[in-house]
Write a structure and sequence with these properties.
Blueprint: H1 2-5, H2 11-25, H3 31-42, H4 48-57, H5 64-89, E1 93-94, E2 97-98, H6 100-104, H7 106-127, H8 130-152, H9 161-186, H10 191-218, H11 221-224, H12 230-233, H13 239-245, H14 252-256, H15 267-276, H16 279-298, H17 305-318
Antiparallel strand pairs: 1-2
Helix pairs in contact: 2-4, 2-5, 4-5, 4-9, 5-7, 5-8, 5-9, 8-9, 9-10, 10-16, 13-15, 13-16, 16-17
Length: about 325
């Protein structure tokens, strides 16, 4: 957590305050919930979404007593979706440690995720305005819908970039966008700047998810803290594979991922063939495109440390290796 935000002035302290609030907000008299969530939040990820909410709030007049709890709510929502995702995907690891369902079983893992969602809504109801609370509910609805669509499309190869982009809007970009919007609006930033930050969050979120999908093909397992090729093993068709299939003139890759053969295919061969067909470079060009869109919006923000931090964040996420 600290490493990622270490060169963003003031952010280490802010993220630590958010982390402390999460521990307070998720405290439970149930020892199983307490043990599971304490372990989960003891090993947090990059805390990107709460960090973006805080950065966006700096374009207004932020009150930490309101902004930090809202940042915590966004992270609790995100963590709940991760727990549910790991159950659906049967992922063995999360951030280098056994996923929650590995330690506690799938039924309890789903309930832990539901518990976090309830705490997220409690915090949102206390600290945000009714419209932002409604927006939060809408985002959760879209996330669930996109996850259902993704699950229905497992092991079903597609060359539709448009459908892929629709999925990652719901899966990732909307929550990034909401984080920026809530941070700016609750800090009373001007409406034009708040809307610009909403678009920035959306474009950064799109680029982030594309890079995440690329790292499933190219990443280092030690850095990623999860198995490389996890998406392919789960039958998820993401942008690198889609781009490679569009260049698959001799049908070699298409044969490997034919619906009836896909579950039992050689996953390492699929990864290698995708790379050989230029799927990684083609997917990366989309991430560059969304990052450039974000940067064009960022360049129009008021000058100052907040703008510099948002620019640094957008550029760093594009070249990350974890």
């Amino acid at each position: 957590m600290g490493d990622f935000w270490s060169d963003f002035p003031g952010m280490d302290t802010a993220i630590m305050a958010v982390s402390d609030y999460i521990h307070t907000a998720t405290a439970s008299s149930n020892p199983i919930i307490q043990e599971a969530l304490s372990g989960l939040f003891h090993n947090p990820g990059k805390m990107l979404r709460p960090g973006m909410l805080i950065l966006a709030s700096q374009f207004g007049n932020p009150d930490p007593k309101k902004i930090y709890p809202l940042a915590a709510a966004i992270e609790m929502l995100h963590t709940a979706t991760l727990i549910h995702d790991d159950v659906i995907d049967d992922s063995p690891l999360r951030r280098g440690l056994p996923a929650v369902h590995i330690n506690y079983g799938k039924k309890d893992a789903v309930l832990f995720g539901d518990f976090l969602l309830s705490r997220c809504f409690l915090v949102a109801a206390e600290y945000t305005n009714p419209q932002n609370a409604v927006n939060l509910g809408k985002v959760i609805s879209v996330i669930c819908s996109m996850e259902l669509n993704q699950d229905a499309d497992r092991y079903r190869p597609s060359t539709s970039i448009r459908l892929y982009l629709q999925k990652i809007i719901g899966k990732t970009a909307l929550l990034f966008s909401l984080a920026c919007h809530v941070g700016a609006s609750e800090a009373k930033a001007p409406a034009q700047i708040t809307e610009r930050l909403r678009r920035i969050g959306y474009n950064i979120g799109m680029a982030f998810q594309i890079i995440d999908d690329i790292l499933d093909y190219t990443g280092n397992e030690t850095e990623l803290k999860k198995p490389v090729g996890n998406d392919i093993r789960a039958g998820l068709v993401t942008l690198p594979l889609i781009c490679a299939l569009r260049q698959d003139k001799d049908g070699k890759l298409r044969e490997l991922v034919r619906s009836e053969l896909f579950p039992n295919s050689d996953y390492n061969l699929i990864l290698a063939t995708t790379r050989d067909l230029g799927g990684i470079e083609a997917a990366r060009s989309f991430a560059h495109r969304y990052t450039e869109r974000a940067l064009r919006e960022i360049y129009k923000l008021p000058h100052g440390p907040a703008k510099e931090n948002m620019e640094r964040l957008a550029k760093r996420l594009l070249v990350r290796t974890y």
